[in-house]
Structure prediction request, 223 residues.
Amino acid sequence: QKEVEQDPGPLSVPEGAIVSLNCTYSNSAFQYFMWYRQYSRKGPELLMYTYSSGNKEDGRFTAQVDKSSKYISLFIRDSQPSDSATYLCAMTPAGYSTLTFGKGTMLLVSP
Amino acid sequence: SQTIHQWPATLVQPVGSPLSLECTVEGTSNPNLYWYRQAAGRGLQLLFYSVGIGQISSEVPQNLSASRPQDRQFILSSKKLLLSDSGFYLCASIDGIHYGYTFGSGTRLTVV
Prediction:
């Protein structure tokens, strides 16, 4: 079993849709959880980060962590064509430790 | 906030040629630094990481090497490139606020 599983997509949605991106993981020691957005031919940029379980909201983006189920989600409301990118989840058990990444989900938002 | 500078942005090299990719970091001191390779459909592969000058840990046996001659400089090298070395190379540094990475803009290497 891989440490972090993420559906590669592509996930195609119309503009304005609510998007749900997910990752599952197997290592119960993970405490810090992040979502990165990567546009084509660019480096990933940090979108959201959370510590332990719970929700975090930032504008149109909401990150959820359910440690009991080893499941994290990123929701995008009112999706825009500019949200079209690959989204990678990442996690680590402690600060200053190497991140473990999912393979990324490609999202396509059509106008 | 920290900034990662990587160059060149794209590189086309013949098989058997040497390689040197440079990464420099601004806005932080004594950072943990990482080299990743990203191939289509394979996600991010950790190649090397460094917790300080001259300290290099290799994650995958391969044709590449890394060096850290200065606190905020990280170099990825190869003496003889293979076709399989093609990919998108990313340098990253840990952000001490949220413990995630700040990535550079990457180098797309094509070995022909």
